[in-house]
Amino acid sequence: MKALLIVSDGMGDRPNKKLGGKTPLQAAETPNLDYVAKIGCCGIMDTISPGIPPGSDTAHLAIFGYDPYEYYTGRGAFEALGVGIRIYPGDVAFRANFATFEEQENGLLVTDRRAGRKVPEGGKLAEKLNKYRLKTAKDVKFRFEHSVEHRGVLVLSGSGLSYKVSDTDPHETLQMVHECKPLDDSKEALKTAKIVNELNTAFHEILKNNPLNQERISRGEPPANGVLLRGAGILPKVTPLNQMYGVSCSCVAAAALYRGVAAAVGMKLFKAPGDTATYETDEESIARTVLDILPENDLVFIHFKPTDNASHDGNPELKAKMIEKLDNMVGKLVEGIDLENEHYIAVTADHTTPCSVQEHTGEPVPLVMAGPGVRTDQTTAFSEIDCQRGGLGRLRGKDIMPIIMDYLGKTRIFGS
Amino acid sequence: MKALLIVSDGMGDRPNKKLGGKTPLQAAETPNLDYVAKIGCCGIMDTISPGIPPGSDTAHLAIFGYDPYEYYTGRGAFEALGVGIRIYPGDVAFRANFATFEEQENGLLVTDRRAGRKVPEGGKLAEKLNKYRLKTAKDVKFRFEHSVEHRGVLVLSGSGLSYKVSDTDPHETLQMVHECKPLDDSKEALKTAKIVNELNTAFHEILKNNPLNQERISRGEPPANGVLLRGAGILPKVTPLNQMYGVSCSCVAAAALYRGVAAAVGMKLFKAPGDTATYETDEESIARTVLDILPENDLVFIHFKPTDNASHDGNPELKAKMIEKLDNMVGKLVEGIDLENEHYIAVTADHTTPCSVQEHTGEPVPLVMAGPGVRTDQTTAFSEIDCQRGGLGRLRGKDIMPIIMDYLGKTRIFGS
């Protein structure tokens, strides 16, 4: 027995006037999702709890079976894992941007939070940054790693660190770089904040004088003369799924965060060729990759990103189209598996992102599960509305993984 | 975006033979509630948890979003707030009745728990009581305040007090006044119980000799010669709604307890003219008051009392009539708001009070929510039975406020 768990990012929505009062999922042509709904059992799921808008990281932790109120320890470590950076227990990781700073009397002004987005010099600049030695804490080391475009990760390693510190990133342009502040009264948070503030200044000094930045300026490009940090996080102290259930599990995803959460809970990471996590993503390639790796896995988690992009762009028609891409992917997967005898499939979303709001909201998401022995219900279409009357009722995100593992025969009786 | 939250007290019921097997809510003509059910989403709600009969105070705490198992600290403080008495953190407040005591060899017998209900001398008697100085604890002060009829509130202020003490009120006539006992092993509870017992004796001594009581006796009225105390409570340590969500919220209610819970969670208090909290209440006046204050509020909570009165009186036909009054109020409210673009409405009950039982029971209550973007379901009538198949599924009381705040755009993403 094997299972596929498909999470379509931000797929949940509200009835939308532009779609005649339908949700994008209702408006989309989804013969394959409807087929799964018809042979399976549907429900609605509060990823965290009713009315609470989930973040992408907490949502995936929950869907993987870990109560985020207990296990969530910031986003940074997931990002690090997601771009392939090693991180160890106790390390504090930050999401980092190369950015453009302008020196002012009262501090550093952010004139471009992404230094023009294109920073091919990132790797070389990172080398220079990594030569710096910390003065405020001799027992702490750091690594800065460039990933793609303007993005990177900063990892602090050493004793007495904390992820309870604020961002230096003001999250808006033409704002001053923020001072990093401790978010609790611990000496660990104070120490970490001091280190971050030292690095903020030191990085700017190193970068502003680098000849690569002089070349950027002479080409008319914004210099990558600063590093903005946000989302401090440590590895959550979870028992990984492979240990907890004795399963082999993998993730097929393109975006770093989702790969990172999957890695943190013990999944191997794969990326399908042509999976861009954008509107142009090659959904059939994702399906092929999943079917390729399925023989070596008990569980494959598939993250489908474009539905959320359309939600944040406020475009319900495009969201419906992206749901049709998802449906096409589901169709290819269903063709390649045996839902009658051997395989389970679960399709859901990590959160609701109404096109009318363009942000995560707290409504539940639709959920369908199908496979051998799954009790059917009367639902024949997959949507937020139809699933409300489904046989699974109203579940929480953290319930999904135990249910899947139970179908796979990997749970243990509690008691005797 | 603004929201109305209507709680019809004790509205939930069981199928009743006197109504041909219908519940009062099914039997009542409720075109306006049915309209809200049709355009909105329905469900059932366990105010506390399945099978647990909620008190009026715990039920409202839960509906306002606070887990009563965590936050409930007795009823007294709510009563005090509800009748407009100032109370501070650490103060212990008791609900108080003027009562008629008869001295017996082994103590004080309660011959009328309410001293005939009419105690217009209450204010003057209270003045006399407040001149007494405590002997058992010099660091504690008290205030007795008369509210209406035979009712009042006793507030103890000082250090080292506890609300974990028992009632002196035997809750039945022709029983002895109970000794106040500590309900845990703390020295605070022991100290508080000693104070209460001292006041019980002292109040009787002061009252029995008061000329106003001699006049009552000469008129053939039962003397108000004792004070029965019950429901010790302190202010719950909650973050008020206005702080938690940054909203302005108000309460329109007549009965003290509900006003008190609302005040404790940060609501401003209003009372509609003609809202008597009885069968004669002017429901259209309540609607007018709500619509009057709505422009200055994000959330208005409306408490509708008569449905519970009919339940405790065991009269299902009258309860159905009171539900029709509620329906009329809902109709006036719906006329005055814009459920398509601007306003949300939620209607529910605080608990089930079956007319056949005449007491609170643990069944869930019906719930409907409607407003812009609310996912609809197939429910077209508002009742305990119809709502069982509604799209909201089965929720807990404490989920309601996050859901409303999420619709108002007042929640924050958990995680990132």
Which keywords apply here?
Alkaline Phosphatase, subunit A, five-stranded antiparallel β-sheet, 2 domains, eight-stranded mixed β-sheet, homodimer
Give a verbal description of the structure:
The structure is a homodimer of 416-residue chains. The first copy, chain A, is an alpha/beta fold and 416 residues long. Chain A folds into two domains: 2-70 and 239-407, Alkaline Phosphatase, subunit A; 82-233, no CATH class. Chain A is 31% helix and 20% strand. Chain A is built from 14 helices and 13 strands. Chain A has helices at residues 24-27, 31-39, 56-63, 68-71, 76-82, 122-129, 187-208, 211-218, 241-245, 256-264, 283-293, 306-312, 316-336, 400-407, and strands at residues 2-8, 41-46, 92-104, 107-112, 140-146, 151-158, 226-233, 249-252, 268-270, 299-304, 343-348, 365-370, 393-396. In chain A, the strands form two sheets. Chain A has an eight-stranded mixed beta sheet, sandwiched between helices. In chain A, strands 3, 4, 5, 6 and 7 form a five-stranded antiparallel beta sheet that branches. In chain A, helix 10 (256-264) links the parallel strand 8 (249-252) and strand 9 (268-270). The radius of gyration of chain A is 23 Å and the shape is globular. The model of chain A has no long low-confidence stretch (mean pLDDT 97). At the A-B interface, helix 3 of A face strand 13 and helix 14 of B.
Based on secondary structure, the structural category of chain A is alpha/beta
Radius of gyration of chain A: 23 Å
Would you report the number of β strands of chain A?
A: 13
Instruction: Tell me the major beta sheet of chain A.
Output: 8 strands, mixed
**Average pLDDT of chain A, to the nearest integer?**
97
Q: What is the strand arrangement across the widest sheet of chain A?
A: 9-8-10-1-11-12-2-13
